[in-house]
Amino acid sequence: MKICVPSMGQGGIDDMVGQHFGKVLVYTVYDTDTEEISLISNTSEHTGGIGLPPEIMVEAGVHVMLCGGLGRKAVAMFEEFGIDVFVGASGKVSDAIDAWMSGRLSRATQANSCAGHGHDHDHDHDHVHCH
Q1: What is the 3-state secondary structure (H, E, C) of 38-69?
Q2: 2-129 is classed in which CATH architecture?
């Protein structure tokens, strides 16, 4: 599974999470299967290019996007492309990935419905999907 995080600077696991999702220059991608890190340049219309960030991420095979926050319209757009969005990411890219893996980030579309979901500290990653 590929996890994408908007990054402040040049990207990478030690870069800071970019809080202006559409305007960052690069997205850091972490592959949970291979543990490899790769970078995606933001060539979308937000930075003078063509297309939208979800289109770029789909081409790169991204499944999940972690960010600080995102409006409903943008979340819906990601979902149309089959990408799950989790909000509440901050700190380094590695911090955001760790928070997601431990179930500390909220799924953007189900943040409210997940509020009553049981929280034990031994839960696995599937907890955050709130089926």
Answers
A1: EEEECCCHHHCCCCCHHHHHHHCCCCEEEECC
A2: 2-Layer Sandwich (3.30)
